[in-house]
Amino acid sequence: MLQKQGLLALILLFSSGLFAQTKLIRGVVLGAENKQPLEGATVVVNKSEHPVVTNSQGRFEVELTQDKALLTISFVGRESYETEVKAGQPDLTILLKASNSTLEEVVAVAYTTVKRSGYPGAVTSISSDKINNRLTPNITNALQGLAPGIQTTSANGQPGNSSTIRIRGVGSINASSAPLFVVDGAPYEGDINALDPADIAAISILKDATAANLYGSRAANGVIIITTKQGKKGDAVINATLNQGWGSRAVKDYDKLGTDQYFELYWEALRNKALSNGQTDAQAAATASSALVSNLGINPYGAAYPEPVGHDGKLVASAKPLWNDDWEKGMHQSAKYTQAQLSFSGGSERSTYYVGGGYTNNDGAFLSSGFKRYNFRSNLTLQAKPWLKVGLNINGASTSQDYPTSSDSKQANVVLFGRTIPGFYPIYQRNADGSYKLDNIGQRQFDYGAYRPNAALPKYNLIGSMPLNRSRNTNENVSTRTYLEAAITKALKIKTSFNLDYTNLNSLYYTNPLLGEDAAIGGTVQKNSNRFLAYTWNNIATYDLDIASAHHINLLAGHEYYYLNSSGLSGNRQNFALPYLYEPVAASQLMDFTGTSDNYTKLSFFGQGQYNYLGKYFFTASVRRDGSSRFSPDSRWGTFWSTGASWRISEEEFLKPVNWLSALTIKTSYGASGNDNLSTTNGGYYAYLPLYSIENNLGNGGVVPSRLPTPGLKWETNLNFNTGVDFGFLKNRIYGSFNYYRRTSKDLLYSKPLAGSTGFTAISANIGELRNTGVELELNVVPVSNNDWRWLVGINVAHNKNEITSLPQKEIISGTKKLMVGTSVYDFFLRQWAGVDAATGNPMWYRTTADGKKETTSTYSQGTQYYTGSALPDVTGGITSSLTYKQVELSFVFAYSLGGKVLDADYISLLTGAVNPGRNWSPELLSHWTPDHTNTNVPRFTTDDLGFTSTSSRFLYDATYARLKQLSLGYNIPEKLLGRIGFKSAKVYGLAENLLTFYGHKGMDPEQAVDGTTYYQYPQMKTISVGVQIGL
Amino acid sequence: MKTYKSYIYFAALVFGLSACNKQLNTAPTNAVPEEIVLRSVANLNTLYEGSWRALMDDFYSDIYGNPGFKTIALVSEAMGDDVALITTKYSYAPVYRFTQMVDKTQSRNNAIWNQLYKIINSTNIIIANVDNVTGDATAKQVLKAQALALRAHLYLTIASFYQFSYLKDPLAKTAPIYTTPTTDTTRGNPKATLKDIYTQVFADLLQAKGLLDGYQRTAKYKINKDVVNGLLARAYLNTGQWLSAAAAADEALKNYPLMPPADYTKGFNDVNNSEWIWGHPEIPSQSDGSYSFNFLDVSSPVSGYYSFMADPFFGELFDNGDIRKTLFSWDNNPGREGNLQYKKFRFRDDETGDLVLMRSAEAYLIKAEGYARENNITEGAAALNALRTARGAITFDPTGATQQQLIDAILVERRKELWGEGFALADIIRNQLPVVRKPYVDGSGNDRKVTITTPDGVTKQVPAKYHTALKFADGTPFVANSPNYLFTIPQTEEQNNPNLFN
To answer: How many beta-carbon contacts under 8 Å exist across A and B?
Structure first.
């Protein structure tokens, strides 16, 4: 074996001597580090146009027309290799080294693909290895930390839920700020859960005008392009993967007080309240001791201690709780994660196929939650005629999500329930002596606790009732992408494609008639069915011309028609006469039945030109005209455009001698895109019309005014400027890119607030302007790369500043935020906590008096609201690393978010103290004010509501966190061992998702909604699994 | 050949594209454009029906704590003397403690304000357009009258809660008046005085009364002349026009005989009750308003919050023999022991309950108060006693009684008769009284004990539960005309109405 330092590839020459004088050249292409065959590598003779592709064993053969020829061998993600061959030469073995840089790769952009080097647009691509093997069924959860400028947060970690994605900041106030998803060339309207991450070949994230604006009115918030796997010419390749894992919540819940401390603390509150009612010390202590048990509704110390806390405020000696039931634990289940995939791919001269199927079962950490998916995909291409190509991708998925309430302050919230009820309330009914009350067949009986005070959720015991209830979403998705591509001439191609996404969403919510919250009304059932049908028909002509290798022109013209129909019906009934029947038919009382449908259509015409000279100077320009049904016929058409240029300086002669510089491109782009995506609550599809919504009354038809007209309502415009540099140093051992951008969203589709006395709270208007300015750095380093070792480290960092630059009025208060010119869309505007009054123990807030003096007040309603920080992080990003040593691979993805604040309402619910007796309390309450302990942040303890827990800056916490999103350790079983059992490849590995979290405010999962508010949501799951991947 | 193909392709494309263009015109299925609503009296009538639904059966701001128009009644009761609210229950504790309605940033203030004015705008649309739409003249007349009366009802509600008594200062600025439909250029009207608001209320009611001659309503939620008379009586009482109040009340009560005693114990959930002048029927599929029973109903197992308990002192106001007295009992359920239940409101079996808006009992009391305030003791006592007799209570003896004694008796009777119906705070504001809440303790300051028998059959003594908010939140005592009693104009109105303070 010959190894030569600095070579891009190694050639091993074997002498067979059998093929002397023939012009046929044969060889095999292998990965340099693991000697695995590379399927689909291209071999080009004398830089001709018709490459030969290696088969699944990595083998190729080419025929030479002359005695000598130059072969160029390339493979995506690896460095190309050129070598001169002579006719009659023995078989070649070509080892391709993994490419250090991704700067040369081909990436998908709007309606086409481009080579990244020299392209003026800002595109981040994510390769399949980062996403294929993730322990989440939802691809949006796998993007975190992988690309700069993508803020990904998963506020609700229930299996099957998606993350919120913001590309380069929040781009709109009332319209959607969510990016457009494109799957295999057409906007994707299906359920994101229908996409199996294992089927994905690559993801491109389009961030600037040049890359995204050909999508016109849908490009304003960036575009995420997902390309699925296609078959390659050669023998069938069979891949099988099996994962088995175990999950639990990623971070622990808040700490809570134990029973003894709880009783003593509550006694103190009752005593203090009685004192303030004018009772003497002795009377007050007696009142407190006697009221304690009756107020809490239970005595966990047993009948022997009718007053477990004595008049001295201390637990009576020898009193011990007879039970301490862990409701939190009771609400959890052991969660399994099972994933299995099987795929077949291959192809012939005229056709390719990729057929795959998968099964995923992702149990949730909480009772009765989980997600299940069965999916299949078939991607076929057929070269029907030399000039005609046909393609058909079909994806089908059936998903089922057990979805108990997991946000909101409802009693049935599975996350909140276990957190709320203290251990001194029994899960199963108990006798006064602590023994279980058994039923006539000797079974324990769940305690629904009608005696519990309101704060301890009387009549509810989800541990008992959840297994009897149902809350299930079952979705069926079919998604097709089909096209016909005709090569009219060598340069001109016309492609027509028809793409259809069909989703049928069904949900069933059932509460049982036997036990629990709805037993009194005989149980309830609600059934919803919603159908979404979206299709996109587009026709695209491309003209590609090379003039004497110096000028390259690529022109594209197209048309697109988009149609979305949504239709749904829902009904509910109650009062089941018989148990164990789950469908509405069995419930005797009809409550409601309703249904609606709607259409949304869009028509577009677009064109794009790309030009480069000598592969050094690049120019692009695009224009698109969109008409949307969301606007009136007079203002529904909008024009969107982009222009960009780049210069590959490193290709210039004067930089050629600079050895350490491998690549350097500067680029810039500018353009205008649009947004018509008003949410249903902000005007939906008809924000321009004066409308009356249907509100029937007692069998009579009824309407109420729902919106004022805005006849001239038009597109929100997003002006996007980007400039950046792509660089590679030291033979691309260090490479990356740096970008600066300024996104200005103007003519915002704004719900301009109106005085409520007008009868409307808002009117739609194109007012206001919002700016996102930021920088992004993506840096990749290859510290070690040799035959045995390869180590790659990637760091991405993004900083975004969100600023309102124009508003229709001076200030707009919306919930916990206030909008003003100069602030961000998510700046908290709250009463400012001023601490606890050392003299009285009362809570204090700041207020500004009429003459401008800032003072404190203990009356919450008199406190002034102030800006108290932003919910938006200062810096987001990730660190990725992969280390390969021979057959062993170790990699991780680490995501982080620095800065920003979260208003933790979840925690507030544990601090309400004696105002809400019976609910769990935080140990922080032990530090409450007393005359002897005045330096504290918790006021005096009483059953009166001092307003302490009213929303204020007291409960803002730093949102900084870092999370080890993925950790993977794998071992490729060597080929010689596999040969005996007939496997081509086999890998065993361990995976972990969300294994570690670093954060400051214990108890709260640091991933919360983008606006920085909590809502009693399902925390993220931590999953650990082992798996095996086999290739045949 | 290829060229030919591209022609076909091109032709198909052009055809396809022109077909698409038409597809850009879409229409909603759950809403109608304005022009359709304003086409005929039948169509316009849907706006009245929808407004009524929005008033009564809509969780204001989508919050369960705000079950339609009854929200205002619940707030009014929670801020009065006689509801000893269980403060650990949902939604009304800050109201009860006088910290919510005074705070302009609280969502409930927004919810009530926005919804009342939303419906005022709907009535304005009807009034502005009803004369011009096609349709039967009588139908137009009735629709117009009902819109006028509904508008008056809403402004009367605003005048009752957003400012002190008219008799304190009729020129106090209160809230904006709108009498024409809002358009996309409306910016907001300035606060008007109480006097201006009542002028509008009287004008609307008197016009409505004229238009409703001969109208026979088909359901008790619809406004007929009796309802208008009842509203007039309230407005006259608020503005100190005592004899007019008595006269209007007398007209309103004529067709609604006081209910037999047995009906009093049936749960106040039936619009067909003989003395309900105005009420809203509830059905399972339209029952947001019924949610108010979750607070008021303290005895049904299905009741969610049962938080509106009676104060023990309130229970002591009733005589033996009074049918209302039979509705009291000390709660014996675990966790609720010692609360005084007043079982006036009860859910029906299907978890709904009709919503009372006006009863002849109230009209009797207005009539009594009107005469009493005019110092006509005989007529005043007669009206009061008509009600007391029907309830089985001891009658008021007018012999030698002073005017003040009679007025005091009437005001106590209003508390006793109208408990839970939303008059508590309104009467405190109207009569410029302080809230009165006292600890229910014995001479030495210890909690008074009551005897209960638990569901398990154990008899025991427990402390009687009474008011927990005996002072304002800042520790100061309850006083008359405190700003803490008033509903505050929400911050969003201040922010977005540039003319509010003009």
So the answer is: 275
